[in-house]
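To the structural biology subgroup,

Please find below the input and predicted structure for ATP/GTP-binding protein, which we are adding to the shared reference set this quarter. The sequence is reproduced verbatim from the submission form. If anyone notices a discrepancy with their own records, reply to this email rather than editing the shared folder directly, so we keep one authoritative version.
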Amino acid sequence: MPRRNRGHRGRPEPRAATGWARAESAPDGEWLVRTVPGAQAAKVYRCPGCDHEIGAGVPHVVAWPADEAGSVADRRHWHGACWQARARRRPTRRR
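Predicted structure (tokenized):
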């Protein structure tokens, strides 16, 4: 008989407060970053790094300032490469 995976009842997950986000420190500040696999990317977003669309089904990252851990309004969806290159790029013009 297969083994069932059960949650840890009574014990909070260590990353539950940030929704599986990892903390990143960079010259532009402290960030909470979550990787979104393509299978879970159901909507279309606009990347603030390149101002191009991130299509549904495309893996990407979601980042927001660490001091605003619960603020949904400050979350931005980035292409992975754009997120890594944000220190080398100039800000894009919004359409």
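Summary notes: The chain is about 5% helix and 25% strand. Strands lie at 22-26, 29-36, 45-46, 53-54, 60-65, 76-78.

Regards,
Lab coordination
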